[in-house]
Amino acid sequence: MSDPQVTLFSDSKYRGSQSTLSIGRYATGFGISNDALSSIKIPDGLKVTLCEHGNFEGRRCTLIRDTPHLKGVNDTTSSIIVERLTTPTVAAPDWMQYCRRWGPRITYKSSDVKGSIKSSLGGIPYADKAVDWIYGAIPEEAKEENGPTGPWMKGAWTNDE
Ligand SMILES: [Ca+2]
User: Fold this and answer.
1) pLDDT tens for residues 96-151?
2) Is 80 found in the same domain as 10?
3) Cys bridge to 99: 43, 46, 61, 88, which one at CB 3.0-4.6 A?
4) Are residues 129 and 76 in the same domain?
5) Strand-strand pairing, 15-21 and 6-11
6) Are residue 91 and residue 129 in the same domain, yes or no?
């Protein structure tokens, strides 16, 4: 069997300059420019870890299949690990490809949220108290974008590169 390789592309949809990598650790360079990686082809059985900084530092994103748009981690990769998947590929669920916390992220200010609840209540008596009560009832997780969301789901990145 030939050595499986991943292919990196500087543009989305497998365009731009490209580079192929075998299994290994690429601490400082991987054939295309630093902070340029935009799409990647990954054959079955390989796992690719993209790292935000050189020497595998910074935040990481793990991918196990072809990814035409890196979205939240677009143009941020500075080092890469290519390794064999140790679990059967067929068992790998979609949520493997999540990359929350790296890339753009929206945080809502509690004062803004309260303000919009207040305006939707239209100035009823005791609105301030009602808003505090309603806001207090919202679970913490809902007040911030904290959950894992795959790059496919993320609409924040619209450009190709
Ligand atoms: Ca790019």
Assistant:
1) 566 655 555 556 677 777 777 777 766 666 767 777 777 777 776 666 555 555 55
2) yes
3) 61
4) no
5) antiparallel
6) no
Domain membership flag for residue 104 = no
Provide the whole-model pTM: 0.56
Give which of 107, 105, 99, 40 is closest to 73, Cα–Cα: 99
User: Token match 């075998």: residue?
Assistant: 22
Domain of residue 122, residue span: 110-143
122-136 in b/e form (b: 16+ CB < 10 A) is eeeeebeeebeeeee
Q: How far apart are the CA of 161 and the centre of ligand 1, in A?
A: 4
- Ligand 1 centroid vs 106 CA: distance in angstroms? 23
| Total structural domains within the chain | 2
Split at pLDDT 50, 70, 90, the class of 22 is very high
Residue 11 has pLDDT above 90, yes or no: yes
Q: From ligand 1's centre to the CA of 10, what distance in Å?
A: 4
**Domain presence at residue 81:** yes
Residue 118 falls inside a structural domain: yes
